[in-house]
Design goal:
0% strand, mainly alpha
Length: 95
């Protein structure tokens, strides 16, 4: 049985690739391990690391947020400085 090493988790190219494959939803553990060139046991051991597990679970949401943010910031409706300034102002309470 694999033990969880709570030391520093270092991202390697293979760990990044495995996280991306798993987060895509198109790969199970076995196929992600094969595509990455590691054993399924290794991938399951990485999954026990909180930072790895959280990353591949959250990556799809981070990608969506990044796309929405990018679309928002490059929107044609934000072409003037006045429009941009208005978006970031805190509404004042009416007296």
């Amino acid at each position: 049985m694999n033990s969880v090493n709570l030391g520093v988790f270092r991202w390697t190219p293979k760990r990044k690739k495995a996280a991306k494959l798993l987060s895509s939803g198109l790969y199970d553990y076995k196929s992600a391990a094969m595509e990455t060139g590691i054993t399924e046991d290794t991938l399951l051991a990485w999954r026990q690391q909180p930072v790895f597990f959280a990353t591949f679970q959250l990556l799809p949401f981070m990608t969506i947020y990044s796309q929405v943010e990018s679309n928002f910031l490059t929107s044609a409706s934000l072409s003037s400085n006045d429009n941009q300034d208005a978006l970031w102002k805190t509404p004042q309470a009416e007296v």
